[in-house]
UniProtKB/TrEMBL annotation, chain A:
GO terms for molecular function: peptidoglycan binding. Gene3D superfamilies: Sporulation related repeat (3.30.70.1070). Residues 109-122 have a biased composition (Low complexity). Residues 1-28 form the signal peptide. The keyword Signal applies. It comes from the Bacteria. Residues 103-148 are annotated as: Disordered. Transmembrane segments: none annotated. Keywords: Signal. PROSITE patterns: SPOR. This is SPOR domain-containing protein. Residues 25-107 form the SPOR domain. It comes from Thiohalobacter thiocyanaticus.
UniProtKB/TrEMBL annotation, chain B:
This is Outer membrane lipoprotein-sorting protein. Residues 76-259 form the Uncharacterized protein TP-0789 domain. CDD domains: LolA_like (cd16329). InterPro entries: TP_0789-like. It comes from Thiohalobacter thiocyanaticus. Residues 1-20 form the signal peptide. Keywords: Lipoprotein, Signal. Pfam families: LolA_like. The lineage of its organism: Bacteria, Pseudomonadati, Pseudomonadota, Gammaproteobacteria, Thiohalobacterales. The keyword Amino-acid biosynthesis does not apply.
Length: 528, 261
């Protein structure tokens, strides 16, 4: 039972790097890969025979002294230069994670001192417990994938193919009917240096949509630099900041604009330029935000589904502020936790992320809605109490500057039953009440509604998850159904399903225009 | 009467070592305390972790994580676990402030939304990342978490061991008892047998390749968990242990969770 040699662990590489950079003598010598060092020479001899049987040649056992102890080092190969030795090291990596390149002595001239600590005792996979007082390993920087000290960098991301299936035709003739395909790509580059105290992240996002030109869009989700110190952090650039605790709505999450063309769940957000200083003290974390520049919300175009009727013309944006989208907004948030309570208190002053949608006409005289962004003052609270299997949640806000001052709240619980029916699976029961003081005039689906939901987590190797919820309005007639599920295939593929449906919505209701836009979404994503 | 007198005389004559007067419970506790004493003072360390999950059909699934630990005096330790593989959960991080008997404080960072979520911590017996390890198998083993009973001394794979039984004192454990084979020389477990809530044998953990770090602290290179009821196994391979890396409380707060990669 051997570890499949897929990705490599780092100590060997670091050791190799140390050797390559520091300890190698300048004289021309042959190189080999030291795969292990043993106190008991019999063990070294056994490994030598095993490697010879596996076809490696030559394999030598060399004496080695380190930390006042005698070792028998097992060294594979005799190669004229380091790059050839590196090739051999690559082949051996799967079985010997702490292998490293070392110079070889001239034949018949045994090594008496080691240039560095030997690789540690390698327990055979099926052997009984091996206890070896190994020498202390050389100090190396925290997990790196470059030899440069304190630097870590990583490219990751995903590419996803999405299909949305609409069983019914769109209500407006401009809207597309039938399935829609689209492609999303979100790479991410991350670099960390200064032993993790400084980092840089770049995360662009691109979606190509078959039908809706407005949904085909590019955004810089993140492009930011972070500097962390003992009691503060400074974060500058385009970033995503999440506030909040509830599942149905994200009331208090105000820093980033909603990328509505992505999904109606408002969890996808546009990157927001900011300077964010966090003061980290005994009394909690105080986040100060300066937000230069505003991102208007994205809306589906005339061809798109899941849109208002008439559609929102994003070419005709109006602002309360004379500075329009260049208005600098500001926010402050204090967050802390006391035992089981996590709390956040925030105030935001600036351009509302939620536009008022005003009737207008496009160039051809057709009716459209035009977004208007007022300046608002919003104070908000988010609170969670984590008590045993119960998560009690509350989000609350009061906003002035947009119509009359109003309040909105969402609160409820998630209770999890662990290992239901003697299985590995967990079942979560969710209930959230959604309130908005604007009543029926609120530009939200949720003003006096109740959400009941289930979350099923089988805790399997595929990380399968399923979340189902129904939002009922106050008299229970209008319903909004939501299903989200995902499962991993292999180590890099993920299948996600999403189904949304409404019932009993009328044309005159706030979101009556989407009453024929029930859909099933299937997404297949490749992560790297 | 006679036997009692004889016992007293025997004790007086032979001067048995102190441990003979200990009850099995006292001796079990003393062994646990000695394990704890020898493993105290490490301050902080980091390590890489690779999990190889294998089902009865032999299908394998790989997890790669990085771990950071901070020792906390008079309380449970703090830990930060960062997921590297599989790639769809890359960047997910779990912060735990553990406590001996009180529920742990745990936060999960979900990188897709940049969201930090406080999670319920009474799920101690659930599978960790779909593996055969439960969270409670991996968390810090404070003395107060169990009551103990010494069973016997014996040889295990040629090494003298203490065999003790321990009973979880914290709530929501998935076990009635654990039988632990402890190496007498290094005071580290070599094997643990877990019995489920019905006291049926559930899992066996074996620990391999102990190495000493910072001239004192022993850590295994490999932990192998076998579930006897399902036939599934998880091999957990540790790498790149680094002690004394200078981590502080600040590296284990909610702000650091958002920065963890």
């Amino acid at each position: 039972m051997q570890i499949p040699p897929r990705t490599r662990t780092l100590p060997g590489l670091i050791l190799a790097a140390c050797l390559a950079g520091v300890a190698l003598p300048a004289t021309a010598a042959d190189y080999g890969v030291q795969v292990a060092a043993f106190i008991n020479p019999d063990n070294a001899e056994r490994l030598r025979i095993r490697l010879l049987n596996q076809g490696y040649e030559p394999v030598q056992v060399l004496p080695l002294i380190s930390g006042n102890r005698d070792y028998s080092a097992v060294v594979v190969g005799r190669l004229p230069n380091q790059s050839e030795a590196a090739g051999l090291l690559n082949r051996l990596r799967g079985s010997f994670q702490s292998g490293f390149i070392r110079p070889l002595p001239e034949p018949e001239a045994p090594v008496t001192t080691a240039p560095t600590a030997p690789a540690t005792e390698e327990p055979a996979a099926d052997s009984p417990a091996v206890i070896a007082p190994a020498p202390s390993r050389p100090a190396a920087p925290a997990p790196e994938n470059t030899a440069e000290s304190g630097v870590y960098q990583d490219w990751s991301g995903y590419i996803a193919l999405e299909t949305r299936l609409f069983p019914r035709d769109g209500r407006h003739p401009d809207q597309h009917d039938g399935p829609n395909f689209s492609l999303a790509f979100e790479p991410e580059y991350y670099r960390e240096w200064d032993n993790g105290d400084q980092s840089f992240v770049f995360k662009p996002f691109l979606r190509l949509d078959q039908q809706d030109d407005e949904r085909t869009h590019f955004d810089i989700r993140e492009l930011a630099w972070t500097r962390a110190a003992r009691d503060w952090e400074l974060r500058v650039g385009v970033r995503r900041v999440f506030w909040g605790v509830t599942e149905t709505v994200h009331l208090v999450d105000i820093i980033n604009q909603v990328d509505l063309v992505e999904n109606t769940d408002t969890e996808d957000r546009l990157g927001q330029p900011m300077i964010n200083l966090a003061l980290i003290r005994d009394w909690g974390t105080l986040d100060l935000f300066v937000l230069p520049g505003f991102r208007p919300r994205t809306f589906p175009g005339p061809d798109g589904r899941l849109r208002t009727q008439p559609y929102v013309d994003t070419e005709q944006v109006e602002y309360e502020s004379g500075a329009r989208h260049l208005h600098t907004d500001a926010a402050v948030r204090w967050s802390h936790y006391f035992g089981p309570i996590d709390i956040g208190l925030a105030h935001f002053r600036g351009t509302s992320r939620d536009p008022d949608l005003l009737p207008g006409t496009d160039g051809a005289g057709n009716p459209v809605l035009t977004p208007f962004y007022p300046i608002i003052n919003q104070t908000s609270l988010d609170l969670q109490a984590t008590l045993g299997g119960w998560l009690w949640k509350l989000e609350w806000l009061t906003r002035g500057g947009q119509d009359e001052r109003f309040t909105a709240a969402a609160g409820g619980f998630e209770y999890t039953l662990y290992g239901i029916l003697d299985s590995r699976a967990d079942l979560g029961l969710l209930a959230e009440y959604l309130y908005d003081s604007r009543d029926d005039t609120a530009p939200t689906l949720f003003q006096d509604d109740l959400m009941l939901g289930l979350r099923w987590t089988p805790n399997d190797v595929h990380s399968t998850e399923l979340l189902f919820g129904v939002v009922f309005d106050e008299d229970g007639s209008q319903r909004f159904y939501n299903l989200e599920a995902s499962r991993r295939f292999g180590s890099q593929w993920k299948l996600s399903l999403e189904a949304r449906a409404t019932s009993n919505l009328e044309a005159g209701d706030t979101f009556g225009s989407i009453r024929d836009d029930d859909y099933l979404q299937v997404e297949f994503a490749y992560y790297y | 009467m006679i036997s009692r007198w004889m016992l007293l005389i025997l004790l007086a004559v032979t001067g048995l070592p102190a441990q003979a007067q200990q009850s099995p419970e006292e001796r079990g506790l003393a062994i646990a305390q000695e394990m704890d004493r020898r493993d105290s003072g490490w301050g902080d360390y980091t390590a890489g972790m690779r999990m190889i999950l294998r089902n009865r059909q032999g299908e394998e699934s790989i997890r790669e994580l990085r771990t950071r630990f901070l020792e906390v005096q008079d309380d449970g330790d703090k830990s930060l676990i960062i997921f590297d593989q599989p790639r769809d959960v890359q960047g997910t991080a779990l912060l735990s402030h553990t406590h001996a008997l009180q529920p742990d404080d745990q936060w999960l960072y979900l990188p897709a939304l940049r969201r930090v979520k406080r999670i319920a911590s009474n799920n101690k017996s659930g599978p960790f990342m779909g593996s055969e390890f439960a969270y409670e198998d991996l968390t810090s083993q404070e003395v107060e978490k169990y009551s103990y009973k010494f069973l016997r001394e014996e040889e295990h794979n040629g090494r003298p061991v203490f065999v003790i039984e321990r009973y979880p004192e914290y709530e929501h454990s998935g076990y009635t008892r654990q039988v632990v084979w402890i190496d007498q020389q290094i005071h580290q477990p070599l094997q643990t047998v877990y019995h489920d809530r019905r006291d049926a044998k559930l899992k066996t953990l074996t620990l391999h390749g102990y190495q000493q770090y910072a001239d004192q602290y022993w850590r295994p290179d490999e932990m192998y968990m076998e579930n006897h009821q399902t036939g599934k196994t998880t091999r957990l391979v540790w790498s790149d242990y680094q002690f004394g890396t200078g981590l502080t409380d600040r590296d284990f707060d909610k702000n650091s969770l958002k920065r963890a990669r």
